[in-house]
Each structure stands twice: as C-alpha cells, then as structure tokens.
Amino acid sequence: MHRKMPTYENLWTRGCVLVSACSLCLNTDEMSDHLFLQCPFATELRTWLGGKINSLIDCTSVLSLLSYIPAQCSPQIADIFLTAVIHTVHTIWLSRNNIQFSSKSTTIHSTKMRIHSLVALSGNASVGKCLPSDSHFLDCIAVAAHCRTVKEIISVLWKAPSSPWLKVNTDGSVIAGHAACGGLFWDSQGSFLGAFCCNISAASVYHSEVLAVILAMEYHY
Length: 221
Prior knowledge:
three-stranded antiparallel sheet; elongated
C-alpha cells in the first residue's frame, strides 16, 4: 500500500493543523517538493554529489532525480547512481527528523560524509560488473571495481583454406545491452585481406553471431 511521508503538507490533509516551517532552512513552509528538491540544504547536497559522480542532477521533480542515471553505463555504475539518489533523499529525511524530534542540529559536512559512506558501501555491495573505463569514477567514491571475470584462454590451431577459397572468422557479443559483430577475411596463404565490424541492435549473443555470418557473406559477394 502506498503511504506518503508525514511532512506537514500531508499531515494537513489528515486534519493535523501545525505551524509549518522547513526545519533545515527555516525559510518557508515544509512541502515535500521544497524539503527534498528546493531547500538550500538539499540543493547543496546535490551539487556536491553531482561533482563527486561527475553528473548534473536535475532536481525539478522526483522523477527527474532518477532520469539523470546514464542510459548507457555498466551495471555497477547504474547501481551507484541509483543508490546515490536514495541515500541522499533518506539522509535529508533523517536530518529533518533529528531536528524535529531530538533537537539535534545537523551540519552539511556530516551529512555529506554520511551520504558518501553509504554510497560507497552500496557500490561495494553491488553485484553488477563494471568496465575498465570506470576505474577513475570508482576511485573518486572509494568503490572497488567489480570487473568481469575473463575465462581461461584456450589456444586453437588455425587452418588456412584451400585455394582459391577464403576464410572468414566471425564473432558477435553483447555487453551491458550493447551488441556488435565483426569478421576477418584470410586467403589460402594466411594473408589478411580485410575486416568489418558494426554495432547492432540485437537482444542476444546468438543473434549477433548469426548476423556476423550473414554480413560476412554479403561483404564477400
């Protein structure tokens, strides 16, 4: 069942009339949009977080907070971006409650350190894999890289085709939703004749490898 967070605006709808003021900035009434999106406290957190993850965080709406996650990134990076939003919103709520119910003031520095440690913890706990190009990003937020494991390489004997035949070695792959295929052409002397490669919108490795064979025949003829 969907439940709303008990901010002042939601308490008003239930008949609880209270004097409303944002506990974090004391500048205006406490509305959900203000508390999590527009409050100077929340804005500074997102600006700092955006600098850490090298991304501009759109705070015009709750949905826009999630839309900043890159459409094309490795699974581990996607997990980090998602948890960064979740931990930031949750930490803002905890900071507000500490002031409201425990009279404990909170500093922007301690809040940043809490978010950073939680994002790092979530990133290290992610089961997603990353790319070699993600190493600098992961170092900035103290997250260990979860690289894809490489299977043992098995040496094979390549046999040249009989003259006048040509041989083409093809392959296809899909990584993080991105598919590609390619091929290499050789003659009966083992001389390299040419190659091709292309990105494709395939949903499986099988589709990619079959398309590579089809393209090889088309390029040859």
